[in-house]
Design goal:
The chain is mostly helical and 133 residues long. It has a single domain, classed as N-(1-d-carboxylethyl)-l-norvaline Dehydrogenase, domain 2 (Orthogonal Bundle), CATH 1.10.1040.10. It contains 7 helices and no strands. The longest helix has 18 residues. The mean pLDDT is 90.
């Protein structure tokens, strides 16, 4: 969930929020009959090491993921609508509730609408937005 790094900054713990969003996505995939292979950190997919390499670029500093970069550039949109929004849409089509992913979409829209800077929200702000303790 790229939007979580954008909202919280790169150093704030967010694994529990990510796990909730992923659990919803997996439930949606199962109900929709979609086969998936996890490729995130800790995944056993042998392609991960080859395909998911972060390398420094000479003369450039890495400022975070693509959603964080969108906030930094002040773009009028964020990819959360497509990443988490797709899970929400599939959930609706297949009768699977997706409150966390829907909240992540709303969070991304808030970040853009209010022109918030990356890392401007606290963990408590995000937990409240996601309906989590």
């Amino acid at each position: 969930a790229n939007v979580l790094e954008a909202a919280l900054g790169p150093k704030t713990e967010r694994k529990d929020f990510i796990a909730s969003a992923q659990a919803e996505a997996e439930a949606v995939y199962r109900q929709a009959g979609i086969t998936w292979n996890p490729v995130g950190q800790g995944a056993s997919d042998p392609r991960r090491e080859e395909l998911m390499q972060m390398q420094p670029v000479a003369g450039a500093m890495r400022f975070g993921g693509s959603s964080t970069q969108s906030l930094q550039r002040g773009t009028p949109a964020i990819e959360t609508d497509y990443l988490n929004g797709e899970i929400v849409l599939l959930g609706r089509l297949h009768g699977v509730p997706t409150p966390v992913n829907a909240a992540l979409v709303a969070l991304g829209q808030r970040l853009i609408a209010e022109r918030l800077s990356p890392g401007e929200l606290s963990r408590d702000d995000v937990a409240a937005a996601l309906g989590q303790p």
